[in-house]
Amino acid sequence: MFTDIHSHFVYGVDDGARTEEMMYAMLDLAVKDGIDRLVSTPHVTPGLKRFDVDLYERHFEKAVAYCRDRGYGIELSQGAELLYTPAADRFIIEEKIKTMDESDYVLVEFSTNAALSVMEHAIDLLECSGYQPIVAHMERYACLFRPGSVEKLDAAHDIMWQVNAETIVEKQGFIHGRVINGWLKNHTVDFIACDAHDTKHRTFRMKQAHKILAEKYGQDYADKLTGAAE
Ligand SMILES: [Fe+2]
Predict the structure, then answer these.
(1) Ligand 1 centroid distance, CA of 128 (Å)
(2) Within 10 Å of residue 133's Cβ, how many Cβ atoms?
(3) 7 CA distance to ligand 1 centroid (A)?
(4) What distance in Å separates the CA atoms of residue 32 and residue 47, rounded to the nearest whole number?
């Protein structure tokens, strides 16, 4: 059974599930994929769009009730995927960031062309404010593909790194694939997560990813990456 720390199944709050029915269908798929712990991480975009906390809470509770009624043994918890924007600084300093399941962990994403210095500033600020950053889908950021970038950040900060299951399952370009393979070989990556947004194109692929990871990098690391070890 797996833990998925990155998911957009709560409907009507971001670009994830659009309807209540789609949310329920996504939960069915998560259970089918062997996920027994699933963190809801809707996009939070400081300064760009107001996040409706009440709506989120209401829809999240519907998801919990659905799983209970169905007899699913899946544990749902709340989190957020923070898009780092200039306006995010104030929210971080004022400690108004939604963490994962009331821990210190914050799932943070950047624009794909973010400079390494911007990423480092955000990570620094998060750490200084008592948060533990998890960088969402690290394979999306061009700056991390420059040799030594990840090592530089890792040397100075206590960062955790997440890669999407889809990236493991789908064939990657030669250079891209080689760098990602290096991160996995060195055990730089801490989490594989599905980042599911729907039931078709961006869905749950943990079982598939786990199988590939176990074959390529060993059972223990595959279990650790997917929460199967816990
Ligand atoms: Fe996401």
Answers:
(1) 24
(2) 25
(3) 6
(4) 37
Domain count, the chain: 1
Query: Residue 4 Cα, ligand 1 centroid: separation in angstroms?
Result: 11
Residue 230 lies in a domain: no
> What distance in angstroms lies between residue 195's CA and the mean position of ligand 1's atoms?
5
Q: Is residue 31 part of a domain?
A: yes
Task: Report the C-alpha gap between 204 and 43 in whole angstroms.
Answer: 18
Residue 130 identity (one-letter amino acid): G
Domain holding 147, by residue range, is 2-225
Report the share of the chain in percent with pLDDT over 70. 99
CATH number of the domain residue 139 falls in: 3.20.20.140
Ligand 1 centroid to residue 109 C-alpha, Å: 8
Fill in the amino acid letter for 44. V
CA of 220 to the centre of ligand 1 (A): 26
d(CA 111, CA 88): 13
pTM: 0.95
The 10s digit of each residue's pLDDT in 130-167 is: 999 999 999 999 999 999 999 999 999 999 999 999 99
Q: What is the H or E stretch that residue 137 is in?
A: none
pLDDT tens for each residue of 96-105: 888 998 899 9
